Amino acid sequence: MSVLIKNVLLNDQVQDVFIEGNRFEAIGPDLDASAREVIEATDMAVFPSFINAHTHAAMTLLRGFADDLELYTWLNDHIWPFESKLTYDDIYIGAKLACLEMIKTGTTFFCDMYWHMPATLRAVSEMGIRAALSSVFIDFNDPRKAKDFRARTRKFFREKEDLDRILYTLGPHAIYTVSRDSLIWISEFAAENNLLINIHLAETRKEVEDCVKTHGMRPVEYLESLGFLGPNVAAAHVVWVTAKEMDILAEREVKVVHNPVSNMKLGSGIFAFKELSNRGVCIGLGTDGCSSNNNLDMLEEMKIAALLAKSSSFDSAAVPANILEEDLKDYLESAYLDPTIFTAGQALECATVNGAGIFGLDMGKIAVGMLADCILINLNHHTLLPRHDLVSNLVYSASSEAIDTTICNGRVLMQNRKVPGEEKIIEEIKNWENRLRTTT
Amino acid sequence: MSVLIKNVLLNDQVQDVFIEGNRFEAIGPDLDASAREVIEATDMAVFPSFINAHTHAAMTLLRGFADDLELYTWLNDHIWPFESKLTYDDIYIGAKLACLEMIKTGTTFFCDMYWHMPATLRAVSEMGIRAALSSVFIDFNDPRKAKDFRARTRKFFREKEDLDRILYTLGPHAIYTVSRDSLIWISEFAAENNLLINIHLAETRKEVEDCVKTHGMRPVEYLESLGFLGPNVAAAHVVWVTAKEMDILAEREVKVVHNPVSNMKLGSGIFAFKELSNRGVCIGLGTDGCSSNNNLDMLEEMKIAALLAKSSSFDSAAVPANILEEDLKDYLESAYLDPTIFTAGQALECATVNGAGIFGLDMGKIAVGMLADCILINLNHHTLLPRHDLVSNLVYSASSEAIDTTICNGRVLMQNRKVPGEEKIIEEIKNWENRLRTTT
């Protein structure tokens, strides 16, 4: 399989990009190459496709299901009861819609944690994109549940099929849903099997308060005390962390996934972008699931990440825990509001190279030898003109409609905004919706 | 001119909508009506089109021109020098791109303040949408400039042509760019001629500090002391206001325009949505100009307005001014972060009926007798499925690609996402860009 992208804008220069198999093979002006598939890309620019570093794909099914609620009400009274009824088939359909939406918005890799993981795996395989997949691990401190989960995890990794485009990870849900023993077990199992761990961490103030009550320390300190933290941990949210906890995360080279829209929508808190990036922490970007976003659009996520950091550049997370009251007002006035931080370029890095760094992928750059994952954007789209600064236009202005083509692993998944089979997926979702209406 | 929209979803019911001239004439299932233009709208829903209550249309030309900078550096060193070179022709082209972008994103009315207003007027007239237009009034405390501006304003309103879809307003830029005398003059001129006034107010902390230094009081108090405030004033931004100032705004029935993206991007501050709406203030929504946003997409603006309010529901504006230090920590902890405020429904109200309220328009509702301004959204678009809650999907999930049709004043301006003449506008912008590159 080979693809030749002709006359595309890359690094301010019109070039050709030649893909052989699943990697970029050659890049330059007027390449002397012939390919099975030629894309004439005049008036288009090529960018790395996006990496959605934390989501729950099948939660597309819960889009708009329970909005404008507090996190624990939302989880306990709405989301978890609904989810408990979802079958393999439901999740397969929901994940297919998610994959479609990601292809349409330029994402070719996502990190997922959910129920019925094989259903999501099947959707990803069929749709042609990449994913890091984990079965959500929740034992609610019940030793029987823990035992069962561990047995299932062992069995899964013994028998798993190695598939192209699929990375298997471990998915302990959070410190308040997984027992101490299981967290230790997961950490050891990950070390033995060289696996990434995907966990929600320090998402809400309640999580911190409960952790302090139960364990006498804060969430990051607790995981550190278990020997859990390391470069193989991708921690999502990480909103309520003190300076000391941020130091621990930096020292252990924990990867952090920022979910600005979800944190804002659920009122979870404000991510300390400046403080974490100043410590050199690798920060990826994720949409979280559709029920707390309510879409999977990384263009939107990049913009909102930058806006949020600029408008709340103080370390809100540290405020209640660290600062003396007499210092607080000065602290707020000096540190609060800074339009110069989290630039468009940094947002794009979070959504591409940083995500690749988290998952150890040869992605995030258009360069020879890298995996051939990219998007072509239509430079004549109204949101991309005039072109004083293409990266700024992409991050702050572009709508996903400006993404003409999405390529993953050397295969064209969308061209001229058409994804083969999309009408069928839409029909399947509508049928699912009708079944839901008639059974409830 | 008549348009019949067949089988469209409205208020959870499939209905027909009949437009005669520029108003909705009849609404109901299976209407017995014949029209010159019939739109088959199965699998579409009809919503009021959006009202962008504060923008600077031609600033599309400055999209991405100077990002990630502090407001006064941005204005003084980048925006104003660039703008001083813009000609009538430039602004006409920029405003056409803005109108195109608004039609594509479902907006049919915008309130504008800019230079070379007749150029924007021409663009609006040709593109078929509506606008409230004002020439920006800036005298920098120079009596000669003030005299000149007043003479020009008088002349304009004496000679102005009354045009369909155009509302003329007054546009004093801000209290720091317009002299005391001119503000008083404008207020009186508005009263005599029954005009709306469009002004930037309390946008930054610096504006407050400078006002206190110069006038011994805060911006809203200053305007109140001049007798300036009334129901005909649409104040944009209104970020740095104390409880006392909010009381004044409510009492005088001043209309407020929230610009969340611009306020976040420039790090201007956090709008006190809860406190102002609790006082019954009419709050519209605006994108501000493209150089501080960087687009004109009201779908995005609605979502970000809600997210911002949920994640910063304390009155940050009041914090430095009002709260005793010993109360601050409690205040933050109690008032900060509330996912239940600024619901999807409220966001939609801000962008439709509230905007109509500000400008006295029969818009913002799909009802017999109202102006026939509406959008048709494609219910099969991936961002709108499944449909647990259509308003939530529109506000939190939809991309503008889901807007199929835009109708203004009974005329179909976009159908199947095509706006007649759009390629020509894109070409004109690219030519403008090329001229800019060769002359600088």
In a nutshell, what does this entry contain?
Chain A has 440 residues and is an alpha/beta fold.
Report the mean per-residue pLDDT of chain A as an integer.
93
Contiguous uncertain segments of 5+ residues of chain A: 314-323
What's the architecture of the largest domain in chain A in CATH terms? Answer: Alpha-Beta Barrel
- The tally of domains of chain A stands at 2
CATH topology call of the largest domain in chain A? TIM Barrel
Shape of chain A: globular
CATH superfamily of the largest domain in chain A: Metal-dependent hydrolases
Figure out the total of helices of chain A. Answer: 16
Radius of gyration of chain A: 22 Å
